[in-house]
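Notes from the 1:1 (GR / supervisor)

We went over the backlog. Supervisor wanted to see one worked example end to end before approving the batch request, so GR pasted a single chain during the call. The sequence is below; no edits were made to it. Supervisor asked that the structure be written out right there so they could see what the output format looks like.
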Amino acid sequence: MPTWKLHGNGRTVAPGAVVKPDERLNWPGTIAIGAQHVVAMFGATFLVPTITGFPVSTTLLFSGIGTLLFLLVTKNKLPSYLGSSFAFIAPVTAATATAGMGSALAGIVAVGILLALIGVIVQVSGLGWIDKLMPPVVAGTIVALIGFNLAPAAWNNFQQAPLVASITLGSIILFSVLFRGFLGRISIFLGVLVGYVVAAVAGELDFSAVADADWIGLPTFHIADFTAPGTWSAIAMFLPVVLVLIAENVGHVRGVATMTEDPSVNKTTGRALIADGVSTTVAGLFGGSGTTTYGENIGVMAATRVYSTAAYWVAGIVAVLLSLSPKIGAIFNSIPGGVLGGATTALYGLIGIIGIKIWVDNRVDFSRPVNQYTAAVALVMAVAGFTMSWGAFELGAIVVASAAALVIYHLGNAVARARKTGADDGGPIPAVGQLGGDPQ
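Structure output shown during the call:
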């Protein structure tokens, strides 16, 4: 059982001080901050299953369980909440449409296993090989193309109720620039609330399932299916997501190390990857969405200066308890398509912009042809929906575009270096915030 030292008097944090991962405030304060973490993650976590058609309560359950597993695997040294990853939306949507939910879950499991294996390698050998595989131009391109590939899905939802969608989108944008700090970070959640109220006034809500749902009960479970036709084609679509999860987890670890002024936190990078991989695998096996470390919760820690893992134990337990209410899940499932259309228009675009921000932050030199074509070709492939098929086996646009980015960069860079025609020097993997969350 983990234990924590009491920080100071347990009630306040002195100016310039932080509550470290192995410390805590008194239990009332710790529980209050844990509840804040639940509110912070909730807006983004429920959107993923709502968009993909997965059970909201099941995703919430495995989000809580995943957080607790993360704390155990990282030996209670790395504060983090594991919520739904937006990087899974595109492959889950495509796989569910072509091969069914069981095959989509198999893809999530495959990503989790691969991420855990990479975590083991990182724990043993370090991050150097990842830096070489995925320099900033490649990392930014892969993150961006995942968001832009989803643009048609946003438009399909938007068309269902253009007025409600427009109000939802406008509210999200307004809240993001109107509010600072925590409220600004949950602008998508607040915008969805506004859209939901407008849809209710317009008579667009179907609340019958909410009335019929029980207050207490187990979530709905689905089992990953590795034998259904089309499953292995579906799994291929998920593999680029691994690169995004690596970037998110590395960025999270580096962010916590910087804010706590404790470089030793960086030594938990391998364990963080393993933990997220295990969490994603468990979720995928039984019907939950894939997980990742959450930027929204980084924001809560930065605002409170409390990095205690005790607060995350509280958050994980609260999430599990909330998941045991089918009525809560039914409320989220009642969100109409128009509201989702407004939210996803902002959300998918934000994913793309985070990829572009990686280029800007790392000063990617686009005067070099190898960088130009790495990004240009991959983005067009993703937006247009390029696919490749061999009989029943098909590779979706995300995997085709991601593979193109890697091949163009590494082969093109080798030729450019040999011919001295403008090779890219690469650089370390950039820190990436949780997709769709706080872009800071």
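Supervisor's comment: Residues 434-440 have pLDDT under 50 and may be disordered.
Batch request approved.
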